[in-house]
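Progress report, Aim 2. The chain analyzed during this reporting quarter is listed below.
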Amino acid sequence: MSTARPRSPRPDEAFDLRKKVLRLETLYDVGRSLPGTRDERALLEEVVGRAVPVLDAARGFSALFETDRSPGFVVALGLAPTPEVVAASGDPFVLDLCRARAPLSRPSESVLGRAAGSAAGVPFLAGERALGVLVVLDREARGDRGAPFDEDDRRFLGSLAGLVGPALEGIRRFEALAADIDRLREENRALKGTLAIDDVLIGDSAEMRRVREVVARAAASRVNVLVTGESGTGKELVAKLLHAASARREGPFLALNCAAVPEALLEAELFGIEKGVATGVEARVGKFELASGGTIFLDEIADAPLAIQAKLLRVLQEREIERVGGRQRIPVDVRVVSATHSDLPSEIRAGRFREDLFYRLRVVEIRLPALRDRREDIPRLAAHFLSRIAARDGRAPAVLGRDAVKALLDYPFPGNVRELENLLEGAVALTAGGTLGAADLQFGAARAESPTFSSTDLRAVEQAHIRRVLSSVHGNKSRAAKILGVSRRTLYRKRV
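Predicted structure tokens for the chain:
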């Protein structure tokens, strides 16, 4: 029994098979490259570079039409000079492709003013719109230049356009979205510099209007700023606003309370430390290095030891730091905003603060008024805090009764805005109804001392308030400082 041997394909059949495989591989490669493509020109260059040889064409081009966002362009292969997009978009053959919305092929066609023995093309469609076209010219089939493009060629062009059209639309949508995001970012930056200041630094008093004006002007500059004021007046809030409304807003904002870090660790916190300085010590990047390109906020700067003050001065002068245990100088680009409730000129006279550092830090000074000096702002501030508390708790905001408003206006607020917020938060937590009365407000000891206060007896009020708090915690100064919202060092300075 004999077995028939398989017939070997004829040369023309083998050629057609290789051609089909090549076209499938081309479609596969183009499809794989599309997800990572974000450049229209690069995409069209690849498409033209693949389509012309695969279709045995002598030359070709791809045109992306002009839109409101893009001027359009032409990518050509074998055409010199490269045609203009206006000429390509107005070419009769190109217009026929857009009207047909399907692949076309013609013999002896004139394209872009050039005679072609054969031409084929396909539009790139996105819904009802033609984004552009792909055109190949002068097919060469086994030495026969000008052989017509056939149905297989048109089918390949249709498959290729089916991949490229949606990809082009995706790129354009991505670019439009990126442009919208950039626009929104710019609008947000502008709003941060205006609305944020007005919405966060609340108050209609002359003092607060001045503060808002100075903050807006200082934010637009690059100078170092010193924020002064009593504890609880919002010094860190001003520092954040200065950063958010500045050209450094995209950079980091880092804060460090100089009174809260032990003196032995403060230098490493600020400037970093190299590995192996002591047994078991790992390398650590300091706040100045981390804040490069942005803003560093040094709170309670008056409590920085003199040795640290000297190193801070050098950083401000040289714009570079050295880590603890290191020898390499590291450049830093940082804006410094510092804050204190202390009287720095008095600290300078007492030898506790460097005068040269003071002038480096205080290029611009922003003085925050005490709440008792702008009592007309208390009702609006109270309404703001009540709304914020309600939004956080998911309920309707409480309102202040007339007696509660009067009580707030009579109280001296030694803890300033922070004390007002904490007072209202406690009242809301302990009150079932929607209206807060004077009896719901748990004032501190300052109110028991006197119903109204002047600036002359403020020191006595503050001392009495601190003594009451210390008494309530049995003399524990750490707990008292936490309740008062100040550092232990600040509490010791009060000398109660």
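The domain at 11-176 is CATH 3.30.450.40 (Beta-Lactamase). Confidence is low (pLDDT under 50) at residues 448-457. These observations will guide the mutagenesis work planned for the next reporting period.
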